[in-house]
Every structure is written in structure tokens, then in C-alpha cells.
Design the sequence.
């Protein structure tokens, strides 16, 4: 694979062809925030926190760095005033879904809970990491999205769960570890709770009304 | 059943044969049977006409052509009598006998003729202002074609352009022609079709696809439906020409399931093509192979977005994917795929039949040819209009559309569907042109054009469109999903009188982020209604926020109903009609509305006789005008 020359924040960087801006930047130690990205999974491009500006002058545009592939001579800025402002707004929006957005991000971009926005505290940011892990890595399709637009949510499909969960993730629910918000939680296995979150009281979003992943697993004799 | 045509000369021979069987001077009754006119029972009119002609023994002398949409849907069922061009509107089955008698005698039925707003009667279709100022290049043939009969299309030079391309032009030459014609995408983006074709042609890969985007989703827009219903072969011919230029041998047509008639006509057209050997292996003996499969969409607006549409064709959920690698490089199943809108495809045969020079003589520097708009809203003449690019919005609304209904004042026009923008009165001279519309914060879109009068609240309009988009966003990316949610929330607050001055700044902030950070064109254009209305009608937003006043008296929470005691004659109409008993008063004495009970249903306002106009809506700090009691 041939080497490509790119410029990120004025820094000259050589990287392999086929890499995304995000991969290139991270390899060079340049910070770009993400919530829906995971090295094990294909890029998805839903949280848009990773937006960066590319090009120069008139031709500057905003792209999602997790999806945009580098090319020879590409010029990238990861922390312009515009980009940081957009990240602040995105975090502001997310805070109305999830009240434990990592403090480090909130402080860095100056995001704050905006009283004029409506709260929609599902705690799930619909990053799709659990869905994609379950589907793409495990091939199980236990988790999936239903609904579209503002009522989109992650649900568990009980028949799939009964079929796959006991054998697919026999020792612990692996999707748990991919959830950045700690929403998929388990009082049995523990979880990766977001700081300060009383786990059993977190609203599990992987429910369809009252059907919880765990209830289903319990029902099928998995736990 | 016709036999397969194996050469171009066989096609031309068939055409000659069809034409020899037709007499251009023969009287033809062209009756619209598009979805719009069908809703007005045009089918019954057609049946009655056929039966009537038979009864009068005129069925050999007079033909009835069941056609697709003529455009003037508001006055349906519509009929045009050829060759003289007399047109009738709002025909009932009962009118049929009289029509047949008068046609035979060369007379007209006066009461079915068009009467304009000034009371002038126009007998001929070409003299009716609604049609006179149009240039119906793509749409005009609908009048002469029975969409279920391929012979009608062949009689109008159908498939001549395709035969010429396959037989005597190289794919490169076809491509060059479309590039020279500067045909831009009619689906909204305005991307040059030739460039798209070229990129797909040059993309690596043996398997390539061409796609017709017939997932028309803008509320109130039905241009594509009417083309597919009325003249499906024009789209199919364009598609074949494109496929030949690109080197594709398989095509998809993605059409909404909600368009049953269009699906039916399309499927029949494809069958007829196969019968004639215009589809399949070795088309017209030229060695070119092509097959088409029709995919029916399940009603998601976002599936009209090219990458979402392609996901849907693959059998996946119709969600957009990032297009940093264009679909012309990697589309359906990762193969280079060229997607164009119905209207774009329908323009292709015309370019070849009438020549690039002719095509480019219509339109502006950057936008060539014509564009079909669905002209709706508070305008006198609603329907589908095809206009040359470059015509001013003013001409469309006032010349073709006949101005605003009920003598009201024009306020704004929304172009480009839910993600377009509103354009105020002082910009009405703006030419219809891809770039000009984008420059002022709206867009051409697929061709929706909604006219609004002075009684429209612009905040309410922005709210309406965002409500639509909140439902139709796929919900994948944060800027679109959360951005629209919060913008809609802010607009609802403003409309209900709970808005704060800072909300306007916040709206602009979120809108800017949504516009630039969203994954697909839906999110990127979703803020347009908000941004453009804020830009041109900021004072109206400020009235809502600062004075809690809705100047157009639309936002219910900000409006109260009153009866002007000086005007009320106590006729009791409002009292009788009020559904909640909020109105009281003695006969012939001024009535009063109990604001505690009033649900603001608007009934009293509507039933108050126009000669009194005693019911008034007030908003903000408006007060009842002091009017002197009239002498009795």
C-alpha cells in the first residue's frame, strides 16, 4: 500500500492509502472526539462529533472524519472555531438524551445543558454500536433499530434473543461493553456504568416498552 | 400480440404502418384519466363517451383517447377535442350526450368552457392563460397518448431516439450530446446528468446499473407520478439511452407503492417493450441487451435520497449512507450506479429528437430546458405546469396561476418541497433557475411550489415542514434527528407564545450545524424552511416572541375571538353553530363570546355573514377597532 502525504492542523503526516482521516489523525496522536466509532466495527457516521474541515479557502467543507478517506495533498483542520462550535451544539443536543455525556468533552467544547431544549431522557444516543456489534460481528441480529426520525429506538427482538443470546454470548452479554452510555446494563453481570449512574435505575433503552433484554434472557432460561 | 422487431428498419416500418392507419384530421376526444381526474370520476365520463358514440353510430368517426394528466387537475375531469383544441372542464357523465351531439355538429357546449377570473370565456386550450404561458415539452405529449397503448407513443416518434443512439451513435457520442445539452438533474440537486453518466461509465467494474428515481415524496408534488402515469415510455426510452451510453445492462425503477396507477402503467409499458423486442437481448438487432426490474418503495420519504434508495433496492432498510464515494462509483451492490429522476430521464429522448441546439435554446445560462412544477396553495389555478427555465416566479404565480385566491395578498412562495425555502414578494422577479433559487436559500427541488397568502403564518409554515421532516428523517445521525427535534420544539414554543428572544439565535445556531454536519441531503436541507423564513420574515417571528402576537392570526394560542358589537346584528348564526356554547346574546342584539369556553375552532368566524363580518380575531396587544354603530 502506498504512502500518502496529508496535512492535519498544519502538521505534515504520511499515512497509508485507504485510511480515514480519523485513523490517520489518531495514529499521529491528534485528538478527534467520537461516540459512535469503534475500531472493531465499520465506521457508521452517526454521532458527527468527529466532523473536521477539509480543503482550503473557498473550497473548505465539513466532513465526518470517520468516513472520509485521505488522499494525496489533503488538508485537514480538526479544531477550527466552526468545528468546535458545531461539536458544542451536538453535545448540547445529546445532553438532552443522555445526562452523562463525558465531562471531558463538555468542558473541552463548553457544552451545557440548554434550558430551552426539550428533554428526551432515553439515555440512548442511538450510536448503533450494540446493534452493529450484534449484527456484524456476532451475526445474531438480536438488537435492531425500529422506528425512524425522532422516534427511532433500539429494541431487542425476543425470538432472536432466545435463539442466539445463550450460545452467542454465553458468559456475558458482549454488547454491553460497546455501549458508550451504559444504557445496556445488567444487574446480573454488572455493566460499564457511566460515572455516577445508579445502574439498575438507568432507563434501559434496549426495551420495547416493558420488554427488557434481561427479562427475555431470564425468560428463556439464560440467566 | 405484435411480433418482435429485430432491426431499426423494422421499427420504422411499424411506425409507418401505425401512422398509415391514423388520420390526423379525425376528431379525437382526449380525456384525462390521471389520478387527479379519476378522483372526479373521469372513468365514468370515458365510459359514457364510448357508449354514447356507439349509440349514435359515431364510434368510427370520433375517437376517444384515455390519456394521462393534462395538468389542470383542479378543473377535472378535463377533455380536449382535437384537431380544433376546444377544451372542456369539470365534465360530468350527464354532459356526455350534449358533448357528442355538439362535436358532431361542430358546435361547443358553452357551460363546460373555461372562464377566467375576469369572467372571460376561453374555448381553446391554447388560449387559456394556465396553458398559454407554459412550454410543455415533456408533458405536452400526455394529451395524445393512451399510456396503455405503445402504438400511441410510437406514432409520436417513440423510440426513434433510442434506435438512432443504438444504431448509429457510439456510447461516447451519446454521452457528449447529453453533456452538451447541459441536462441537469430534475430531482432537486441539479447535478449535470451527463457528468453523472460519464462518471458511472468510467468507473471501474463490469456490472453497472441505471436507476429511475420515482420515489416522489414532497407533499403536494406529483410531477413524476403524472409523467409515469401518462407517458411511461418516455422515461423508459430515456433510461435505455442512458444505459447504452453508460454501458449498463440492468436498470431499476424505484417507484412508490402509493402510486398504483403509475406502477400499473409502467409494468404494462415494460411488457409491451418486451413483446416488441425493445427490451431484452439484442435490442433491435444492435447487440445491446437491457433488462429492467421495478422496485416498489414502502413509503419512506428518505428513500428518495439516492444512497438510501440504493440500500432499499438491495433489500436493506432505506437509510442513507455516506457519499464521500459517489454512487456513480459504488452504488447498488457496490457497483457503479447512475441514478436520475423521472423527469430527467423523460428529457433525454427529447434532446435527441429535437437536437441539442433546440434544447439549449430554452432556459438560462446554467439551467437548460423546461421544468415541471406542481403549483399549489392559495393560487387561483392549481395543477401541474411546465415552464421554460428562466421564467420568473411572478409569471408562474400570476400569469399561469392567475394570482391569489379571493383577491388576497401574496405573501410568500415555497419552492423545493419541505426542505426548500420560502421566497418573499420582493424576490418574485427571480428566475426559475437551479443556481438562482439556491442563492436565495431555497432550491429547485423536485418541483413543488406552494403559494401562500397574507393569512399564512410563516412560523407556522416552518413548524409544519419540520413536523414532516421529524417524521421522515431516518434518525441515524445526531444533527438531523436531534437538531430537527429541538428546532421543532423551539418553533412550537414560539407558536404557543412561550418563545424567548434567544430562541431565534438558538434556532439559527442549530440550523447552521444541522445544515453542515448532517449525513445526507435530507438533514442538510432540513433547516431551509427555518433559515429562509427567519431571514425574510424575521419581524413575524419577533412579533410572536416579543408581543405574543401572530400577525396572520393562525397560531391558535395567540389568537382570541371577539364579536364587534357595532357590527353584530344578532342574527344568531354563530350562536347556533358554536360547538361549545361559548356564544350568548339575545336576538337582534350584539352577541358575546365567552373566552373561557371558546376553543378557537374558527366556526363563528366562518359562519358570520360576509355582510356583517362581526367576528374578529385579535392577537397580541391588538384591540377591537372602534367602529361607529351603523344607522339603522
Sequence:
Amino acid at each position: 500500500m502506498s504512502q500518502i502525504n496529508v496535512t492535519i492542523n498544519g502538521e505534515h503526516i504520511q499515512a497509508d492509502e485507504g485510511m480515514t482521516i480519523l485513523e490517520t489523525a489518531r495514529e499521529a496522536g491528534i485528538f478527534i472526539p467520537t461516540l459512535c466509532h469503534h475500531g472493531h466495527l465499520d465506521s457508521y457516521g452517526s454521532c458527527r462529533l468527529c466532523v473536521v474541515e477539509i480543503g482550503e479557502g473557498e473550497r473548505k467543507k465539513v466532513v465526518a472524519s470517520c468516513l472520509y478517506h485521505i488522499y494525496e495533498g489533503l488538508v485537514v483542520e480538526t479544531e477550527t472555531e466552526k468545528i468546535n462550535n458545531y461539536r458544542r451544539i451536538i453535545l448540547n443536543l445529546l445532553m438532552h438524551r443522555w445526562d452523562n455525556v463525558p465531562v471531558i468533552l463538555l468542558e473541552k467544547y463548553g457544552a451545557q445543558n440548554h434550558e430551552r431544549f426539550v428533554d428526551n431522557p432515553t439515555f440512548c444516543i442511538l450510536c448503533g454500536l450494540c446493534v452493529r456489534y450484534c449484527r456484524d460481528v456476532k451475526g445474531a441480529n438480536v438488537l435492531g433499530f425500529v422506528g425512524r426520525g425522532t422516534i427511532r429506538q433500539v429494541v431487542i427482538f425476543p425470538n432472536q434473543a432466545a435463539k442466539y443470546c445463550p450460545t452467542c454470548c454465553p458468559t456475558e452479554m458482549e454488547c454491553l461493553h460497546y455501549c458508550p452510555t451504559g444504557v445496556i446494563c445488567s444487574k446480573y453481570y454488572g455493566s460499564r456504568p457511566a460515572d455516577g449512574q445508579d445502574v439498575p435505575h438507568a432507563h434501559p433503552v434496549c426495551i420495547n416498552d416493558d420488554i427488557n433484554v434481561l427479562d427475555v434472557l431470564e425468560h428463556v432460561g439464560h440467566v | 400480440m405484435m411480433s418482435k422487431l429485430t432491426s431499426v428498419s423494422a421499427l420504422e416500418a411499424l411506425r409507418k404502418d401505425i401512422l398509415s392507419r391514423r388520420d390526423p384530421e379525425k376528431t379525437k376526444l382526449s380525456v384525462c384519466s390521471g389520478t387527479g381526474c379519476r378522483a372526479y370520476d373521469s372513468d365514468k365520463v370515458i365510459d359514457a363517451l364510448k357508449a354514447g358514440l356507439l349509440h349514435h353510430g359515431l364510434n368510427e368517426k370520433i375517437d376517444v383517447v384515455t390519456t394521462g394528466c393534462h395538468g389542470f387537475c383542479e378543473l377535472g375531469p378535463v377533455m380536449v377535442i382535437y384537431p380544433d383544441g376546444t377544451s372542456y372542464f369539470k365534465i360530468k357523465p350527464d354532459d356526455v350526450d350534449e358533448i357528442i351531439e355538439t362535436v358532431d355538429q361542430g358546435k361547443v357546449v358553452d357551460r363546460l368552457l373555461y372562464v377566467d377570473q375576469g369572467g372571460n370565456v376561453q374555448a381553446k386550450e391554447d388560449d387559456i392563460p394556465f396553458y398559454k404561458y407554459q412550454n410543455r415539452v415533456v408533458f405536452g405529449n400526455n394529451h395524445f397518448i393512451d399510456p396503455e397503448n405503445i402504438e400511441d407513443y410510437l406514432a409520436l416518434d417513440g423510440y426513434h431516439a433510442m434506435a438512432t443512439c443504438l444504431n448509429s451513435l457510439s456510447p461516447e457520442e451519446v454521452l457528449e450530446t447529453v453533456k452538451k445539452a447541459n441536462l441537469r438533474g430534475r430531482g432537486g440537486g441539479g447535478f449535470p446528468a451527463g457528468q453523472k453518466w460519464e462518471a458511472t461509465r468510467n468507473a471501474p467494474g463490469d456490472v453497472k446499473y441505471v436507476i429511475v428515481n420515482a420515489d416522489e415524496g414532497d407533499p403536494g408534488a406529483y410531477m413524476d407520478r403524472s409523467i409515469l402515469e401518462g407517458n411511461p415510455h418516455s422515461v423508459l426510452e430515456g433510461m435505455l439511452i442512458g444505459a447504452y451510453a453508460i454501458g449498463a445492462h440492468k436498470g431499476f425503477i424505484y417507484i412508490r407503492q402509493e402510486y398504483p396507477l403509475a406502477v400499473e402503467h409502467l409494468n404494462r409499458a415494460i411488457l409491451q417493450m418486451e413483446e416488441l423486442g425493445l427490451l431484452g437481448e439484442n435490442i433491435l438487432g444492435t447487440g445491446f441487451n437491457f433488462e429492467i426490474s421495478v422496485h416498489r418503495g414502502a413509503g419512506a420519504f428518505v428513500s428518495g435520497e439516492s444512497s438510501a434508495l440504493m440500500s432499499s433496492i438491495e433489500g436493506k432498510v432505506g437509510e442513507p449512507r455516506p457519499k464521500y464515494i459517489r454512487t456513480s462509483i459504488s452504488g447498488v451492490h457496490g457497483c457503479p450506479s447512475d441514478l436520475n429522476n423521472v423527469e430527467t430521464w423523460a428529457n433525454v429522448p427529447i434532446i435527441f429528437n429535437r437536437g441539442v441546439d433546440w434544447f439549449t435554446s430554452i432556459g438560462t445560462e446554467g439551467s437548460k430546458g423546461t421544468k415541471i412544477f406542481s403549483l399549489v396553495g392559495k393560487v387561483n389555478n392549481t395543477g401541474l405546469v411546465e415552464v421554460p427555465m428562466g421564467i420568473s416566479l411572478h409569471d408562474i404565480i400570476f400569469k399561469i396561476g392567475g394570482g391569489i385566491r379571493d383577491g388576497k395578498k401574496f405573501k410568500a412562495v415555497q419552492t423545493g418541497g419541505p426542505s426548500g425555502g420560502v421566497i418573499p414578494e420582493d424576490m418574485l422577479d427571480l428566475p426559475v433557475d437551479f443556481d438562482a433559487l439556491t442563492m436565495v436559500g431555497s432550491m429547485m427541488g423536485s418541483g413543488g411550489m406552494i403559494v401562500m397568502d397574507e393569512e399564512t403564518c410563516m412560523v407556522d409554515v416552518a413548524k409544519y415542514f419540520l413536523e414532516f421532516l421529524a417524521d421522515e428523517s431516518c434518525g441515524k445521525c445526531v444533527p438531523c434527528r436531534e437538531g430537527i427535534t429541538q428546532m421543532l420544539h423551539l418553533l412550537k414554543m414560539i407558536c404557543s407564545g412561550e418563545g424567548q428572544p434567544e430562541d431565534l439565535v438558538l434556532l439559527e445556531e442549530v440550523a447552521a450545524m444541522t445544515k453542515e454536519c448532517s449525513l445526507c441531503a435530507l438533514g442538510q436541507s432540513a433547516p431551509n424552511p427555518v433559515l429562509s423564513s427567519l431571514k425574510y420574515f424575521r419581524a413575524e417571528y419577533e412579533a410572536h416572541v416579543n408581543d405574543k402576537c401572530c400577525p396572520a392570526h393562525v397560531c391558535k394560542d395567540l389568537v382570541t375571538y371577539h364579536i364587534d358589537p357595532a357590527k353584530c346584528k344578532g342574527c344568531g348564526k354563530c350562536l347556533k353553530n358554536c360547538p361549545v356554547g361559548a356564544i350568548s346574546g339575545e336576538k337582534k342584539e350584539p352577541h358575546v363570546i365567552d373566552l373561557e369556553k371558546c376553543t378557537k375552532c374558527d366556526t363563528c368566524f366562518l359562519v358570520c355573514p360576509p355582510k356583517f363580518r362581526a367576528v374578529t380575531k385579535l392577537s397580541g396587544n391588538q384591540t377591537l377597532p372602534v367602529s361607529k354603530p351603523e344607522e339603522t
Summary: Chain A has a mean pLDDT of 80. The first helix of chain A runs from residue 21 to 27. The interface with chain B takes residues 45-49, 51, 62-64, 67-69, 85-86, 89-90, 93-94, 96-97, 114, 116-118, 120, 125-126, 128, 145, 147-152 of chain A (CB under 8 Å).
